[in-house]
């Protein structure tokens, strides 16, 4: 039963399990107490902090344990913004940050602050110069992930850090996806991470704040973790998190090479054997274990179900697989196709044979889903070119609007247009992406009584 | 090695351990995902929520899991205050709430809100009428613990809940200390608790919000736990928390009877065999497993160390055992002695023989500590009554100011005064408490160049 969604949560590392069991016996007491059970808990907490700090590349007193990567991001952003409130209330961040960053930014704006979202290229990376250009005299904080959680693209952290240093702006790096693979390039002021991404248990995040960074913890005061993470320390889990970080790092270099080759194989075979597919993200500057692709004319939820039936667990940024019915903000910012989206993220130790089996199964699964949806299998016949056409896909969900477009494009004359009426959010992203993949011209979007009218001109 | 500090953290319950191990294998994946590992995690999460809701006495959709009791309190208070912001910004709470409530109240005041602290009697309980009197037209929320964490006194929750209902004010009950022993009396609108207090793992708290209670979650938005607890669910620990809550509840009634008898024995023997001791808290309306007493002329930290050397783990609300060097706010609000303070809280399963051994050891340990500090062993001789005296205890820490006072009180004539100059915070509480215990008159406190001057009149 191959599990290919390590970017959501990795199965517990054996070292984490072992450390957790030991710490359940030795580390359940309150580390703030003076009696022996408390002192023992304190020793375990101190040792875990030292191990984690070493892996992060900071001093132990710069690092606190939070209850998750999300709370680390929330606390880090709120504390840094407040610490530099006198400088200004501007926050700069990339358009493809994790939702915990975007939600913090939205809360900051709701409270009267201002934000600049730095766009990304088609691979999902920010341009360092553009990021530098977003820094202003009143910028209190900049946020940039080390690598993207949906498409794996590495961000130019070192270059952006240098520009931030020049501008005197602290940089928070969300290292949730990369910390298990290696340290973040120097230059960050704040760093956050999440243990269950590297095989540690749930319930543990990291927040490191470099000495000298102005920081003012928000929310009710707390006595624990330097006042930066409220509540009783989740100690056995913290011990397990630190132990497994050290363990995965030991094997990370070799495993990265191996998984990178497996991902290269996926990238190649998918592009070759699945028709009408877009493999997204940077093919080189990327996480070793993660690849994402989108399949035209495919319903993401059905695709995931079919893969699950064949025992492959993957995730998707398609709108139909999210509770909000909007496509992933990452794919949107990249301007790439979102329909039939699949993210494969291999946990360390993934067998090559499992990847091979996935690659054998995938083309047929995609073909089956397309057939069921009535997707065009080849260029449609064009017996008598019609004048411009209007397709009504109102009330129909992704990928139907694109399928309907593809079905009729051959029916209009070269130079004529097809107008698709659609009210599914994904159409806004997927119709232009389809045009780019198919070499047709995306003319633009016009308001309509219901939804929008997307106009496409046939070029070939 | 008897551990008598269950009120800080209870050792992991065997059922919690077993459930945790199973859930580490079955429940590590993201419960929001559609594949089988995610669905399995979702089933575990749903089952844990149902079990916890049953124990709390609410609907599953009224209950979310937080990362600790403290974060449950923070989120509960912030959300309820914000939800009723149009009604007003007044918060009423007892003076002896857990620090998480007091810190939330302080943050609320810092943000422009107002708070009323309802005082407690010498047993540590609020008077329902006084609590009711603190409710105003602009009161957005009232907070009352089910039972006190330092002295074990049960609060009149049902009576206060009725008054809150009458006034249309939601009541948040912090049930951290009592939930393992039984459900909270009906009438609450919000309820919080902490799993590691009942033998569950660290990293799990509960927040229940009754349907119909206005609630607006604060901080950055989140997709998990109804938007009320940010971050990836700490699932294996949640499963263990729910399983152990059910398990401890099964045996709670019988165990409460047994521990209540052991605590009664401690209360009796301590009062009888330790001279100059004050056993605090309500002797009847109290938690079954907890008792606190304070010993005159004793340094709390030394006492804890000596008990630890004899393998008894207890905690203390004395100022010298806290990092802030102020005595516990609970003892302060009760107006009882804080020096030489010891809290004994018995975990379920505590052997009677261990309690007996503690009671054998304690009197000698207290006597030893007193002897080392030069405390008066009997009424001091009074050869030639002096006029009023001034004792300079500046720069000297608790219990020295009280010891110095006790040494010289016999040297002044009946009706004359002793003035103690002291700058240790605990003196403000302990000198009046000593007067009450000794039948002397506490005249009052006067400002001094350094610290304060505490004036005591000899009556006998």
TrEMBL record, chains A, B:
From the UniProt record, list the reaction(s) this protein catalyses: (sulfur carrier)-H + L-cysteine = (sulfur carrier)-SH + L-alanine
Q: What is its EC number?
A: 2.8.1.7
Which superkingdom is the protein from?
Answer: Bacteria
Which Gene3D superfamilies does the entry mention?
Aspartate Aminotransferase, domain 1, TusA-like domain, Type I PLP-dependent aspartate aminotransferase-like (Major domain)
Looking at the record, the residues that make up the UPF0033 domain are 391-415
What are the UniProt keywords, alphabetically?
Iron, Iron-sulfur, Metal-binding, Pyridoxal phosphate, Transferase
Q: Which GO terms describe its molecular function?
A: cysteine desulfurase activity
The protein's matches in InterPro entries, at most eight in alphabetical order, are given as: Aminotrans_V_dom, Cysteine_dSase, PyrdxlP-dep_Trfase, PyrdxlP-dep_Trfase_major, PyrdxlP-dep_Trfase_small, TusA-like, TusA-like_sf
**What cofactor does its activity depend on?**
pyridoxal 5'-phosphate
Chain ranges passing through the membrane:
none
Q: Which Pfam families does this chain map to?
A: Aminotran_5, TusA
Question: Which CDD domains does this one have?
Answer: SirA_YedF_YeeD
Q: Which family does it belong to?
A: Belongs to the class-V pyridoxal-phosphate-dependent aminotransferase family. NifS/IscS subfamily.
Q: What is this protein called?
A: Cysteine desulfurase (EC)
Q: Provide the species name.
A: Streptomyces globisporus
């Amino acid at each position: 039963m191959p599990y290919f969604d390590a970017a959501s949560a990795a199965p517990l590392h054996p070292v984490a399990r072992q450390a957790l069991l030991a710490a359940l016996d030795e580390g359940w007491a309150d580390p703030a107490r003076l009696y022996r059970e408390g002192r023992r808990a304190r020793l375990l907490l101190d040792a875990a902090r030292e191990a984690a700090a070493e892996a992060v590349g900071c001093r132990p007193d710069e690092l606190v344990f939070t209850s998750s990567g999300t709370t680390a991001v929330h606390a880090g952003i709120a504390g840094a913004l407040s610490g530099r409130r006198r400088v200004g209330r501007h926050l700069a961040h990339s358009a493809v940050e994790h939702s915990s960053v975007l939600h913090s930014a939205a809360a900051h704006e709701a409270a009267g602050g201002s934000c600049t979202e730095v766009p990304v290229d088609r691979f999902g990376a920010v341009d360092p110069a553009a990021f530098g250009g977003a820094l202003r005299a009143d910028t209190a904080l900049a946020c940039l992930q080390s690598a993207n959680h949906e498409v794996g693209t590495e961000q130019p952290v070192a270059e952006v850090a240098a520009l931030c240093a020049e501008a005197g702006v602290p940089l928070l790096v969300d290292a949730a996806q990369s910390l298990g693979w290696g340290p973040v390039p120097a230059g960050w002021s704040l760093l956050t991470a999440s243990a269950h991404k590297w095989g540690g248990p749930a319930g543990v995040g990291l927040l490191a704040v470099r000495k000298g960074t102005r920081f003012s913890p928000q929310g009710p005061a707390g006595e624990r973790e330097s006042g930066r993470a409220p509540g009783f320390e989740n100690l056995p889990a913290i011990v397990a998190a630190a132990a497994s970080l050290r363990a995965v790092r030991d094997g990370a270099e070799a495993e990265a090479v191996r998984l990178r080759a497996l991902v290269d194989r996926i990238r190649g075979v998918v592009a070759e054997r699945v028709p009408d597919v877009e493999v997204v993200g940077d093919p080189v500057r990327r996480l070793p274990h993660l690849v994402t692709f989108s399949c035209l004319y495919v319903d993401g939820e059905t695709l995931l179900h079919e893969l699950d039936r064949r025992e492959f667990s993957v995730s998707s940024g398609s709108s139909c697989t999210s509770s909000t019915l909007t496509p992933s903000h990452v794919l949107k910012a990249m301007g790439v196709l979102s329909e039939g989206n699949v993210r494969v993220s291999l946990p360390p130790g993934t067998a090559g044979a499992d990847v091979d089996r996935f690659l054998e199964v995938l083309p047929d699964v995609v073909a089956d889903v397309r057939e069921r949806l009535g997707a065009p299998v080849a260029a449609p016949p064009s017996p008598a070119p019609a004048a411009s056409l209007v397709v009504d896909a109102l009330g129909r969900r992704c990928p139907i609007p694109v399928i309907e477009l593809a079905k009729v494009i051959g029916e209009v004359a070269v130079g004529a247009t097809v107008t698709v009426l659609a009210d599914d959010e994904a159409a806004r992203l997927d119709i232009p992406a389809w045009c780019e993949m198919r070499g047709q011209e995306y003319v633009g979007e016009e308001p309509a009584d219901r939804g929008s009218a997307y106009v496409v001109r046939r070029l070939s």
